[in-house]
Automatic annotation (TrEMBL):
Record-given protein name: Uncharacterized protein
Source organism of this protein record: Nymphaea colorata
Top-level lineage group: Eukaryota
């Protein structure tokens, strides 16, 4: 399942912002 990876990526992007 790549959904989890997608969520992690989104979270990282948000944290970066």
């Amino acid at each position: 399942i790549r959904a989890l990876s997608n969520i992690v990526y989104t979270l990282a992007c948000k944290e970066r912002l």
